Amino acid sequence: MRRQYTLLEEPQGAEYTGLLRTLSRFCQYALLVVRPEIPLSPYGQETLQELEQDIVIQEARQEWPGTRLYGGNATVYLVRLSSRSLEILCQRADRLYEWSQPLLPEDLCLMRTETEPLLVSISHERDAYLLLSDDEKRELLSAVPSFRIGED
Q1: In a domain, 151, yes or no
Q2: In which order are the strands placed within the sheet that holds 74-80?
């Protein structure tokens, strides 16, 4: 059984990379979003170019984990989590909510499968949550002891 946990503080620095590296063990994909009404910076465009060989789906959607648009679409990128793409995600940002336009694509999520999220972030709202089993929670808190979550 999995429970939902809210992030009490934004993971930054070593805590951010520790979070991604630990959770990537349980995930096949990362998800990123680009909204058409906010121009993506050159840095954000370069980031997508670096991830290009691992992008398995790029499509217009009104909904993704944690967000539903009421009118219009955004481009959702599903990125295969490889050691290469994980390093890009760790290096291009220093904190979780930095995945926000215009600097970078938005709402970094880590996905167990194409449709099942583990880490969901809503960057512009500075909100994120995890869907974890007890074993996954223990492993995460053991790997990143300073990480703070609250059970919903």
Answers
A1: no
A2: 55-61, 74-80, 29-34, 106-111, 117-122, 127-132, 3-7, 149-151
Instruction: Provide the pLDDT confidence category of residue 147 given band limits of 50, 70 and 90.
Output: confident
Q: Which residue range forms the structural domain that includes residue 90?
A: 3-146
Domain tally, the chain: 1
Please check whether residue 131 lies inside any domain of the structure: yes
Torsional class of 123: left (φ above 0), alpha (ψ -120 to 50), beta (otherwise)? alpha
In a domain, 104, yes or no: yes
Distances from the Cα of 30 to the Cα of 1, 52, 96, 120, 151, angstroms: 22, 13, 13, 10, 23
- d(CA 26, CA 130) in angstroms, rounded, equals 12
Model pLDDT for residues 1-22, shown as the tens digit of each residue: 999 999 999 999 999 999 999 9
Per-residue pLDDT, averaged over 70-90, amounts to 97
Contacts of 51 (CB under 8 A, 6+ apart): 32, 77, 79, 85, 88
- Give helix 83-92 / helix 14-23 axis angle, nearest 10°: 160
- Asked whether residue 152 is assigned to any structural domain, the reply reads no
